[in-house]
DNA sequence: GGATTGACCGAAATTGTTTTACGGTCATTG
DNA sequence: CAATGACCGTAAAACAATTTCGGTCAATCC
């Protein structure tokens, strides 16, 4: 049995169930059935252990997004599916869901930083697809980073914030239509 | 001297300097040079006094936005100028600036509610202009409320959030160009 | 003798208690 | 009878006492 893997497994479960702050190194050691000192032979501190785990979750999210799209489809379809998939992942995945909750309620610094990395990954993913669409002439020339950022923020606004403040969520079709008739339309070459 | 006016003046100064929570009714009474009980003959409680003041600030913001635009200009110009003006007002105005700070740090409920009204005012303002543009055939048919919401959220993202996370602010020209070439372009009839 | 451990340390958070401050009232006052 | 400020109950701040936790390292084990 691989001690390092056991530690990561235990920490993942604990972070997912209790969040970053409420997870103690003693707890992780106990679940992983190792001495607390052993953890520190693999990870220099709690935050590094945490970062490693979140970053592997981010890679998982990227894989799922990649798997959700078909390279042949137009950019607007790819962007919509990828954004919806990643936003859903962010909310549904046990670890990230717990972290979002913790950020809202406790504002743990380490958590804020990692959720920012999640955001960067999503924006970066969309920016890369957008750049490809520009290169192949499907989309007009524009700053992919800025437009990807706008897409991300707008999707978050409609998928997450709108239901929170206005009560009723918007259907996925409504959101897709809205973007098709405004932003994506303006992007067409 | 008008007691009611004096009270509003005193409360405005106090809310602007110390925020909602840190303003006490004793403090307001002292500044206004009235007994505390007198305040309660005009306002039923602290929150109502606060609401009255914020709502008058909102009207002030609307006036400034209205004054900043020319009815003859195309929607994209009006929307840009109005959004920039209102976002600037929101950040620069002593009262609203203090409230934004208080919301971030203390999350006072009464403050959250009033800042939500500020947001609603901005979105409503843009939605109204958008509806007019649609009626006069300048802009394609769309849901004005949803598109105005997207505009607001995107502008906040670029004007306020981008500089906070990425360090460097974007020039107003960069922002205007970005929207002209994407969202506004997609809206054209 | 290198890997593993958990008792141990100081800092930081939590808990429990006392004191203070505050929003709102209302009997008194001018 | 409009205006006031002492007064009330609650809620928050302040303080003290206690516990918890991240990280270390001498002792232990294999």
What distinguishing features does this structure have?
homodimer; 189 residues; mainly alpha; 10 helices; 79% helix; elongated; DNA-binding
What would you say this structure looks like, in words?
Chains A, B: Pfam families: TetR_N. Chains A, B: Residues 24-43 bind DNA. Chains A, B: This is AcrR family transcriptional regulator. The structure is a homodimer of 189-residue chains. Chain A has 189 residues and is mainly α. Helix content of chain A is 79%, strand content 0%. In chain A, helix 5 packs antiparallel against helix 7 (109-135). At the A-B interface, helix 8, helix 9 and helix 10 of A face helix 8, helix 9 and helix 10 of B. Chain A binds a DNA duplex (30 and 30 nucleotides) through helix 2 and helix 3.
Q: What's the topology here?
A:
The structure is a homodimer of 189-residue chains.
Chain A: H1 3-18, H2 25-32, H3 36-42, H4 46-68, H5 75-92, H6 94-105, H7 109-135, H8 144-166, H9 172-181, H10 183-187
Chain A binds a DNA duplex (30 and 30 nucleotides) through helix 2 and helix 3.
């Amino acid at each position: 049995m691989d001690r390092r893997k056991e530690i990561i497994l235990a920490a993942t479960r604990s972070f997912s169930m209790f969040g970053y702050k409420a997870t103690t190194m003693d707890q992780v050691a106990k679940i992983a059935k190792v001495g607390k000192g052993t953890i520190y032979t693999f990870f220099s501190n709690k935050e590094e252990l945490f970062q490693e785990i979140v970053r592997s979750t981010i890679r998982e999210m990227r894989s799922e997004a990649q798997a959700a799209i078909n390279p042949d489809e137009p950019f607007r379809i790819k962007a919509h599916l990828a954004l919806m998939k990643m936003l859903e992942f962010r909310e549904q995945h046990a670890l990230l869901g717990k972290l979002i909750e913790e950020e809202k309620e406790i504002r743990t610094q380490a958590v804020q930083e990692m959720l920012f990395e999640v955001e960067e990954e999503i924006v970066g993913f969309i920016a890369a697809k957008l750049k490809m669409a520009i290169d192949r002439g499907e989309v007009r020339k524009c700053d992919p980073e800025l437009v990807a950022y706008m897409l991300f923020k707008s999707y978050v606004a409609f998928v997450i914030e709108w239901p929170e403040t206005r009560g009723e969520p918007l259907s996925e079709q409504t959101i897709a239509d809205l973007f098709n008739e405004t932003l994506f339309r303006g992007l067409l070459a």
